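Continuing the series of single-chain predictions for the mutant panel. This is the parent chain; the variants come on the following pages.
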Amino acid sequence: MGTNDTKISDQPEMFEPIPDKGTNEGGNPMPELNRRERSAADGFEPLLTAGEAAEHLRIHVKTLQKLAREQKVPCVRMGKYWRFRLSSLDHWVITQENQTSQPFCVKCSGDRS
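Parent structure:
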């Protein structure tokens, strides 16, 4: 054999092994994160599809798309698709509640006793 007879296993590791994506630093398994959880962890609120937003609002998707076309609901148009932020939809619903559920009083011009 030549001058470099050293086995790979005899050499010290220069780099620490990269942890498996399925475990944390302690070696414990990490739960699988869905798209929304990953985005929230990154600090970006994910955009919902029209179907997801309609399901959240409990209305038909076509109704939500009509409201989006009429610019009555907060949304973003991406090509031919509508996208919605959950926080914007929640704020919009609260605003709609406050506008329509204000008590009112009808004042009469004359006293009708």
